[in-house]
Each structure stands twice: as structure tokens, then as C-alpha cells.
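By way of example, we now present a protein record of this kind:
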Amino acid sequence: MNTLLAKTGSVICIVTVVLFAVFMLIPFDFGSYVVCMLLPIGYILMAAGFHAECGSGRKAAASAALVFAAVYAALIYLVYFAQTTTVRLESRSEQAHSILDYKKGGLLFNYDLLGYGMMALSTFFIGLTIQARGKADKWLKGLLLAHGVFFLSCFILPMTGVFAGLQEGASRAGTVALEFWCAYFLAVSILAFRHFGKSPV
């Protein structure tokens, strides 16, 4: 059961990351928001798989990874459930719109960045738990640890106001950055699927 759930989580991550990358290019905002709410499910299952397989000497790091994954999921559901319901379906004042609409670089955009910062912390702690048993596992471990660096930018940059009142040019640059992240996390998800396939948990 542990292996099945972990592999299922990896597949969900693979599918949702690919769809997110495609939906950004079309663009199809509603689809992007929906798949962003499915990604945490896959990620938590994947993180739980790493928790289940690690030895007792690494359980603290694996447990921290699961907690940060849960915080990530809570923030992401807060952001994207608002985008697919309140922002999409209800009329509101310009001030409320600037706060709630993800595209405006307001409060919920900052929560989104914080959420992915928590995911980055989670991947870092997962990386600490992996005992690499081959080249693919070494790559997986390295990518997970390096992904943890995103926590710093996701946590600090919103405090600088750099994203306030996003303009069209900044939005295009953001799309390019997100496409890069999709390629990065797609590699992580594929390597995780291979890892669980070789090593029953």
C-alpha cells in the first residue's frame, strides 16, 4: 500500500505539472488554478512515501517534510479555491479585487508564494532523508535539496514589494519562471516515481 500511494502521488505530480505548464501557455487560467489544487494531493502522497521508507535516524527530517507539505497544501487551497469561486463568480470593489485576484500581485499572490516556499522547505527535508542507491537517486536527492533554496526567494521577495501591482511585462517574465519550475519539478516527480518503483516502501 505504501508503494502504491507513493507512486500514485508521483504520477499525480507528473500529470498536474504538465497540465499546469500547458495551461499557462494557452492561457487557461481556470484550468491552471484547478490543477494547482490537485498538485498538493500528489505531493503529500509522495512525501508520505519518503517518510514511510526512511530509517529511524531520519524520521525527524521526514516528519518535518510532511508538516511543511501540509502547510503548503493549506495555503494553496486558500489561494486557488478563492480564485475559482469568489474571484471568478462574484462582483467586488476595486480594492477587494486587488487583494483577492491572484493576477494583481496582492495578498493571495503573496500567500501563494509563501505556500510554495513551504513546499521548498518540505523538499529540502525530504532530500535529507534519501539514501541514494544509484545515479538516479543521487540526482533526485540533489534536486530536492537544491529546490529548498526557493524558500528564501518565496519568503523574502514578497516583503520587498517587488510583486506589487504586477504589470504585463512582469507577468510574462513570471510565466517563463514558472515554466522553468515546471520542468524542474517534473524531473523531481519522474525520478521519485522511479525511486518508489525500485524500492518498495
Residues 59-89 form the longest helix (31 residues). The mean pLDDT is 90. The chain has one domain: 2-198. The chain is about 80% helix and 0% strand.
